[in-house]
Amino acid sequence: MTTPWRWIPPLAGSGPFQMALDELLLDQAVAARVPQACLRLYSWSGPWLSLGYHQRHLPAAWLALAGQGQLGLVRRPSGGRAVLHGGSLTYALIQPNPASDRRQAYRHHCRWLQRTFAELGLPLSFGTGQAEGDSGSCFARSSAADLVHSNGAKRIGSAQLWRRGVLLQHGSLLIDPPRELWSQLFQEPPPELPLLPEGVAELGVRLRRAAEVDLGGGPLQEQPLDRQEWAELHRRIASKLKVFP
Questions:
Q1: Which CATH class is domain 6-126+138-240?
Q2: What positions carry a catalytic annotation?
């Protein structure tokens, strides 16, 4: 019998909080004798720019905006380019023993997202890999890991980290990104996205329901963080409070 996926209720928090929690959940799955898959949706407290694990060049404008307190900087454990978190939802899923082919893993782990937007009358397809600029932004290009609308506008960007047979997949789902800050960072406006016909709370419910069909194969098991996890999380947050560069 398949073990139900764990669902962690949405938590808003800073960049260091969110990235420390995702890495904690990944490490728990790696260390567990019988690892459990896990999914969560979350938002960020204030605007944060998350950097891909291998993204080392930081434009002076990014550092200046961070120094002025207009946004925070944090590094993701997953790859990819920079993502501005504001007016968006982020998802993180941890899957032990996923499909070994990365392209296949992306396609499997994005079905629930495609189902949700198809139900809204806004179908999404995978990107082509064609770059639209060199701004350092995740949303400046649409790769085969990303989901775009029929007009080519990128709605969801995803990235992965594989650790000892366990997959962490991150994704950012744009809803209403801050246009002025986006333009200051990336020297271009955010994607021109179709308006969603419902609010963020309703979208979250719809996403969870789709995940139960396409990921867990049944109801997700709601399981908030326990005391031990909270303690370990707070210990780890300090390591994410890195000053850039």
A1: alpha beta
A2: 138
